[in-house]
Design a protein that fits this description.
mainly alpha
């Protein structure tokens, strides 16, 4: 189950990366979208760095989520702080942007703790011998011994 959580986090990070690419493209093409980048130049740099970080996360290297978390805190943290301090009466659009930015911080935070606490989760050596098939060797041996004793010669 832990490996499933790791795969889902990775898939969620990739989906969020694609979403941020769309947000950045919409802003650079000057089309209307429900959210805009806080700093377009820094976001483009962050998107390219996130590709390298996702590769390192797949390899279960702790450097990947550390850089990803640092970039997320630097970009989204300053944006959240500025939006919260700017006005007490936040609109629906502003609160949805804050919610998206909080998701942008939570995904790398969960990935960081996921790799920090269990680095060997996505080890595929056990996938070749699945437990449901090969995990019953002890029972099979006991069953074979009973069957061998009960064979009658005619």
């Amino acid at each position: 189950m832990n490996a499933l959580f790791s795969f889902l986090l990775l898939f969620l990070a990739i989906i969020y990366w694609v979403f941020r690419v769309v947000v950045c493209l919409m802003a650079t093409m000057q089309l209307e979208f429900f959210t805009v980048p806080y700093n377009t130049t820094f976001e483009i740099i962050m998107l390219f760095a996130m590709v390298a970080c996702i590769v390192l996360i797949v390899k279960r290297n702790i450097v990947g989520p550390t850089i990803y978390l640092g970039l997320a805190f630097a970009y989204f943290g300053s944006s959240i702080y500025e939006k919260i301090m700017a006005g007490a009466g936040m609109s629906l659009l502003g609160s949805s942007e804050v919610l998206l930015e909080v998701c942008g911080i939570l995904i790398p935070l969960f990935m960081f703790f996921d790799i920090l606490f269990n680095k060997n989760k996505m080890n595929f050596a056990e996938a070749r011998k699945t437990e449901w098939y090969f995990g019953t060797d002890k029972y099979d041996r006991q069953y074979d011994e009973r069957a061998d004793r009960n064979q009658y010669k005619m």
